[in-house]
Design brief:
Layout (H helix, E strand, L loop, with lengths): L1 H19 L7 H16 L3 H13 L5 H12 L3 H13 L4 H15 L3 E8 L1 H4 L3 E4 L5 E2 L5 E5 L3 E7 L6 E6 L6 E6 L10
Parallel strand pairs: 1-7
Antiparallel strand pairs: 1-4, 2-3, 2-5, 5-6
Helix pairs in contact: 2-3, 3-4, 4-5, 5-6
Length: 195
C-alpha cells in the first residue's frame, strides 16, 4: 500500500510546477530558427540584422555555436570589444580543447590589435617646444596636427614636456582597436613652486 501513496504524493508535488509554466515559453526550436535566420542575414551581408537574430537565438537557448557566429558577425561590424566577449563565451562552451584555444586566440588577437594613439598639445605657442614620449620610445617633437603612434593594444605611458611647463603624464589603454585621442593643455610652472 505504501508504493501507490508515495507515487500519488510525488505527482502532487511535481504537477503544480508543471502547471505554473507558461504555454508560450521560448523553446530551443525557436532559437534554432533564429540562428538559421541570422546565418541567412549574414550571408546576404545584413550584419546588424544577423547580430540581432543571433542575440535572440542566444536568449532562446540555442546551442553554443551561436557564440561563434555572433563573434564573427561582431567582427564584420567592427565591434571588436563585443566580438571579444562573444569569443570568450564561445571558448567557455567549446567542445574540444583545440576549439577552446582557437576561440581564446581570436579574442586575444582582437584585444591586442594595432591601434592609433594620438596626442594633441595646446596652447599652440607652448606646443611648438613640446616633446612627446610614448612608452620608452625616444621623445618626438610636436608637429602641427599632433603626434601619433600605432601601437599594439594594451596600456601605454604618454609623457609631454616643454620648457617652462609642468610635465604632463598619463597611462592610456587602447584595447580592441579603439583609438585613443588625448588633448593636453600645458600649464606654465608656478614660480612659487620652483626651488
Amino acid at each position: 500500500m505504501r508504493g501507490p501513496s508515495l507515487l500519488f504524493v510525488l505527482l502532487l508535488l511535481v504537477t503544480p510546477g508543471l502547471a505554473a509554466q507558461p504555454r508560450d515559453m521560448p523553446t530551443h526550436l525557436e532559437g534554432m530558427v533564429r540562428m538559421r535566420q541570422g546565418d541567412e542575414a549574414l550571408a546576404e551581408n545584413h550584419v546588424d540584422e544577423a547580430i540581432g537574430l543571433y542575440r535572440q537565438a542566444e536568449r532562446l537557448g540555442c546551442p553554443p555555436r551561436v557564440y561563434r557566429a555572433l563573434a564573427e558577425a561582431y567582427e564584420q561590424a567592427r565591434r571588436f570589444r563585443e566580438a571579444a566577449g562573444a569569443w570568450t563565451r564561445a571558448a567557455a562552451f567549446a567542445v574540444t580543447p583545440e576549439a577552446r584555444e582557437e576561440h581564446l586566440r581570436r579574442r586575444e588577437r582582437l584585444r591586442t590589435m594595432l591601434t592609433a594613439v594620438r596626442v594633441m598639445v595646446g596652447p599652440p605657442l607652448r606646443a611648438r617646444a613640446a616633446r612627446v614620449t610614448i612608452d620608452h620610445e625616444p621623445p618626438r617633437a610636436y608637429v602641427a596636427g599632433g603626434v601619433e603612434a600605432v601601437l599594439p593594444g594594451g596600456a601605454h605611458r604618454v609623457r609631454v614636456e616643454a620648457p617652462g611647463c609642468e610635465i604632463w603624464e598619463t597611462v592610456v589603454s587602447n584595447l580592441f582597436g579603439e583609438e585613443v585621442a588625448l588633448r593636453v593643455v600645458l600649464t606654465p610652472i608656478d614660480p612659487a613652486h620652483q626651488r
